[in-house]
Design brief:
The chain is 24% helix and 33% strand. It contains three helices and ten strands, in the order ααβββαβββββββ. Strands 2-1-10-7-6 form a five-stranded antiparallel β-sheet, with no helix packed on it. Strands 3-9-8-4-5 form a five-stranded antiparallel β-sheet. The longest helix is centred in the first third of the chain and has 21 residues.
Length: 202
């Protein structure tokens, strides 16, 4: 009986959550608060520490030139998939095993034009060659404060002149995550800043 109730509840809420995921601008702070309360209950029922929450937000800031200080557009995208290779790399770093840190010297952001859905078994962006581009960290990144890390890198039309459909943080060896999005295509003369903000335990 309980199994049937759970299946019915899932069939009811799953489409609602899918719709919210596809229309992030329509999600209010009250909606987010209710979702976090629901998330807390789900974690307790699944024996998962709710402080293990991995909250990832992507932003693409679009500038008309290098001299511009204010972007003419900012697009925000929520969540992504943590890749298995990235998770293993993090655990190696925690245990002091041989691995490459996601620091200022190694961290990168890669964009590509593949819209293949995210899957933890992937190893980074799907696109390659002229349909993918990698950029090193901007000065001062990554930044860490209060359980949050921010990665940021810039691209111009010569680097990434294609439709942005996917994005990923890497360390030069493996990718940490992958996000499928609709970011558009860089206009002539534009500079785009891609930013990934990851919070753990919030």
């Amino acid at each position: 009986m309980e199994h049937k109730k759970l299946a019915s509840a899932y069939n009811l809420i799953a489409p609602i959550l899918d719709n919210m995921s596809n229309n992030l601008d329509s999600v209010t702070d009250e909606d987010r608060a209710m979702l976090m309360r629901l998330y807390s209950k789900l974690c307790k029922a699944s024996s998962i520490s709710e402080h293990s929450a991995w909250v990832c937000r992507w932003a693409i800031e679009k500038f008309k030139s290098k001299e511009d200080k204010v972007p003419y557009a900012v697009e925000n995208f929520g969540q992504n998939v943590i890749l298995s290779v990235g998770a293993s790399e993090m655990l190696k770093l925690i245990c002091g095993q041989s691995a490459y840190p996601f620091d200022a010297a190694n961290a990168t952001i890669t964009v590509g034009n593949s819209s293949v859905p995210e899957d933890a078994s992937q190893t980074g962006v799907i696109a390659g060659g002229a349909n993918a581009a990698t950029s090193n960290m901007s000065a001062g990144y990554p930044r860490i404060q209060n359980g949050t890390i921010v990665f940021s890198a810039t691209f111009d039309e010569d680097q990434a002149n294609f439709q942005w459909n996917e994005i990923s943080v890497g360390n030069g060896i493996v990718a940490l995550n992958r996000k499928v999005l609709t970011g558009g295509q860089i206009k002539t003369g534009d500079i785009w800043a891609a930013r990934c903000t990851i919070s753990i335990g919030s």
